[in-house]
Amino acid sequence: MIASVVTRQRRSAFLLALLLAAGRSPARTTVPPVAAPVVPAPVLSPLPGDLLGATVHRLANGLTIYLSPSTRVPRVTAWVAVRTGSRNDPADCTGLAHYLEHMLFKGTSRIGTMDWEQEKPHLDRIVALYDRRFKSRDGKERDRLLKEIDRENAAGAAFEVPNELDRLYARLGFDDVNAFTMDEGTVFVCSFPRNRAAVWAKVEADRFTHAVFRLFPTELETVYEEKNRAMDNPERALDEAFALALFPRHPYGTQPTLGTVAHLKNPSLARMYDYFHKAYVPANMCIALAGDFDRAEMLALLEREFGGWESRPVPPRPAFPTPRPKGTKRVAVTFEAEEKVVIGWQAVPGSDPDADIVTVMDMLMDNAVAGIINLSLVQAQKVKAAGSSPDLNRDAGIWEVWAVPRQGQTPAQAEALLLGAVERLKRGEFEESDLKAVITNFEVGEKRELESNEARVNRMAMSFVAVDEWAHAAGRLDRLRRVTKADVVRVANALLGADRVVAVRHHGKPNSPVIPKPSFTRIQVEDVRQSAFFGELVALPAPPIEPRWVQAGRDVSVSNRPFGRLYAGPNPENDVFDLAFIFPIGTRQEKELGAALDLLDLAGTGTLDGDAFRKALYALGTTVSLAEGERRTTVSLSGLESHLEESLRLVLERFAHPAVAPGTLEKMVAVQLGSHQDNKKNPSAVFAALVQFAERGPDSSVLNQVSDAGLKALTEPRLTALGASLWDLPRAVVYVGTRSPDEIALRVAVAPAPHRVAPPTPRMAYLVPAAPRVLVTHRDMVQSRVFLYAPDGPMDPARAVDEDVWTHYMGGSMSSVLFQEIRETRALAYVAGGGVDAGDLKGDDSRLWGNLGCQADKTMEAAGLLATLEHHLPLSATRLGESLHALDEAYRTAPLQFRAVPGMVMAWEEQGLPPGDPRPARFARLQHYTLDDLAAFSRRYSGVPFTLAILGHRDRLDLHGLAALGTVQEVPLDSLFPY
After folding, report:
1. How many other CB atoms are there within 10 angstroms of residue 645's CB atom?
2. Is 346 in contact with 15 (CB distance < 8 Å)?
């Protein structure tokens, strides 16, 4: 849905369990066919040593259930995973699994319809018409059939309730409702209050047994928009070219998850229904739940609701050849982005005994701190950026290294450096202590992972998708501990030979196909509509959950100390601490502060050079971050309580006595000069700069960055002195851990005492235009990116409830106004959202905002609609009621987690709020909020001049038409950056 496709660069967030819990050996040429996926063995009681406390159950129809109870929050995270993804798409109908993921949000014969019997004939005709169009090669006939489809779609819409599933879930306090598609699987996710388990079970059972693919034409256009986004994404372009070169005869390479443009233009609903009925069967699916529930009661509920689902055979899994490349195979793409080189090898599949070794091998190369690549290439500033990553699927794996060349460096030179790092790995140029450090950091990560229901459920669901027995998955850390240096060297030499793919992204103009804007009848959304089943579900009994507010003494301690203000909270879960020093200064007061922190990050101290310093912290399992903002600078540490003192000593020593190797500053400046040029090629960086320019003009945070000339004028003494001077200032200290406030105050008091007054903190102010404006920056893109804002004067905490209601009502979910009106009924954009942002600090301006991304030829219509909706809020008592219910449930069932409490208390203070948790008063007001209140608040935006910032291709934007929305100003690229 909103973020529905997982590409290789993003898979790690979803596949952490898969990558760490699998096993492997050298890649094979072909994969033997498997008749059907193997269902995991039941685990009826938690395994010894399994910190998730997970159990695995099987219903009589073959559906697998994973359960991991946890009472941390009164919510349950639920994932429904299917072992079918883009690998299983028909070769002549790619993108089908992803299409299907979208359509499974459209309801059933009970959800999303006012009268199924009258709606069904129209949907049946739409299926038949799409099938005729799919088979036709006559352009005129295809256009005629599309018009017939549009007529039937409009007729069927008379009986439909668009987005009712999302409306239901939003009303009842469900959160994170989404889905994603991978090579091997499709996963549907959500989080629900513990008292809504019965609703969730009834809806999901109905969803996967009686799905109806209504409103297909508008959703098809939404998928077009998602494809447009992909074609504007330089990472995806390189990724797809790389995968095709590595797997030229396998769907991992030949079938992009979003499908090809040709197939997107020619869908078949009949084939989609056939795919659904074959692949979405109980034995091919699992339900994974983590959260606040009783195991026996939940299992009984699932048996009652899902047990009647008909058992059907699992479709056979076809085999595809996976021959390795012979020698070095090269592929190149051209894109208006920074250059990049990727070198990849086929690795072992996820079930291979050597998979754990590949996981450890990868961390030895790139752990973001002290791996071979991190130290020899990034820390040494031989390239702008570099890393490695594995992707270990069922048929074969990938292991890759990548680098972004620095200024003046060619991709070939970066390639040679990467291969040099790989050779160091193959020669075993690492120590046993490096292996131990990797395991220490895995252990810290596992402890953090247990704090999150999402991380728990991810591990369970991904073990099912990977066909990994839970006993094996749960034992991943023990297996990783047994990996030796000899194991890593053996596997590295077996896998990382001359048979590889080198993919290079060169800077230049891409040749992206453009999908024409379709013409179809807009679907009307009537908020008063609801199915009978909607009413039944809302009426199900649900004992209210009382909110949990922050309580001083129990959840947080706030005190004044000689160094400043201390905010300390207890950690009831484990021995992993968080410690942050927050200084009241940023780049707005000291422009060069960011460069000072960058230089410190490359430095060592005392007898430790930069490499040894990083390795020392990594061996402790401690993560350190230096982050400068415009008005605040933060030095943060996280790791094991037993290592807090040593970690803090190292960090403070580096600030006080940094050891900067000769030539480090010169290399850093060269890299940053190259980054300046790359920023102008990066669409996200350009759009962010345009938005800053629109909102703040010459005070843009981007324009405040150090210029090229400023970088060249930097000196080491100036920067090291600037870093050390932070500790002259009073500071806030935010701590979460197992120590008392007095003890942690004693520990952090080893830092230098403050002895100077902090410089004044500038307020965040937005430009107030006298009339509507449209600022346009040209870029050769398929899509346009659109941002809208209007200043709303100084932040006023008394408006907090109005702002929360407005934000949820307008853009808080897939049932909100902007999503419904822009995406669901008109298919003008893939993403559409908006709301009100209050300031961070007392005196800051608030602002109204909205954003969307759309095909270039839709920009005028989409931007105009966005402005109209923000100016003139469409009032609906039904929609307001749903928003109020959702916000009420959020207060009741989403308490602040222990790691967030001290920082949030500090944020409340900085906003000028009185001591204590402000949410009880807001909650009380919410109970009496009315449509008149919302109408009164919305009037503050009626007639306010908006500013639209648009990044897109000027020849496709209709600049003349945009003039109807405001005075059009073309902003050259060079005006957005100070270099």
Report:
1. 11
2. no
